[in-house]
Amino acid sequence: MKRSLVAVALFLACVLPNLASGQKLIALTFDDGPRPYVLYGVRNPGEPVKAGLIDTLEKNGVKATFFLMGWRLTPKTWGERRETNIGITCIDAARDLVKRGHELENHTYGHERLNLVQKKRGSEGALADIEKGSSAIEAITGRKAIYIRPPQWVLPGDLRAQIEKRGYRVMTIATENPLAVRDVNSLDYLCAGSQPKQCPKPSLAQNVLRQIEAREKQGVTTHILTFHELSSTVPAIQMLIPELKARGYRFVRLDEYMNQVQSIPDWASGRDSYRLRAAGERFARCLFVLSLRFGKNEKW
Ligand SMILES: [Zn+2]
Questions:
Q1: Distance, CA 145 to ligand 1 centroid (Å)?
Q2: Does position 108 have pLDDT exceeding 50, yes or no?
Q3: Which of 18, 26, 188, 266 gives a 20 to 30 Å CA spacing to 219?
Q4: What are phi and psi of 23, to 5 degrees?
């Protein structure tokens, strides 16, 4: 074997991260909707047209997962008073999302922090709020919601166990979920409004890419990205999808994401065993190439 070929083989085996063995998956998720003015965009006379989220996903061939507020899924609801009414009800928007192949999951009915609900109405009250949200979604999709993302990720520990006992799976940014199934907080809510001061620098999209790169350094190449149905989020999504595709990522709904990730061996063993596993795999690859090399009694 030529020396240069050997060098390339060794580089690939020993230095490159485990790109071939690691699936590269993204689950895009959006909280707080349905907000028709965000999903379909706004065309106010005299103002620039704001692109809709549905169109953006459609153009990129991406299916996403929407964590909805149950109260929006009541008849004749167009959203909150301050939201632009584009003449499409939240229920119709939710039905359209399903028709287009997106997934609907549960962000509770009232969208109140569950520790506050628990204080006011006890654990039963908090669980009732979740079940009510689930029923509202089931009325549209015909199936029970599986995933719960508590508003602002606030969830008293005893409630989590009770929610899981009912067959739900809890989305969180806390370390109790292994890294691969822990939400990535995009911080997009800091970029909403006319003069956002705390929006991540240099941009929302760049900040998300940095978070992904930091997770990759820990050997994790699957990410659940948490965004909100906000007009200010749509341009970031328009930038992120092609960029992440160019980096080898595939976009899937949360249900498929969970199936795929959990089929990766040892995905949840220990909190963050990925880096160790990745290093082990690299070492084994490296040894294999070296054994081929020395097995033939060749010299460098
Ligand atoms: Zn929310």
A1: 16
A2: yes
A3: 188
A4: -70, 145
Confirm whether 65 is domain-assigned: yes
Angstrom CA distances, 64 to 42, 241, 257, stand at: 21, 12, 11
Residue 224: DSSP 8-state? E
Instruction: Give Cβ neighbours of residue 132 (< 8 Å, ≥ 6 apart).
Output: 70, 109, 110
Q: Residue 35 C-alpha to ligand 1 middle, in angstroms?
A: 12
- Token pair for 70: 């149950």
Residue 51 lies in a domain: yes
- SS3 for 228? strand
Q: Is residue 90 in some structural domain?
A: yes
45: domain range? 23-268
Q: Please tell me the pTM assigned to this model.
A: 0.84
Please give the single-letter amino acid code of residue 82: R
Domain count for the chain, please give it.
1
11-55 residue pLDDT tens: 777 665 554 447 999 999 999 999 999 999 987 777 778 889 999
- Among 197, 229, 187, which Cα is nearest to 80's? 229
Can you give the CATH number for the domain in which 97 is found?
3.20.20.370
Backbone φ and ψ of 222, nearest 5°:
-130, 135
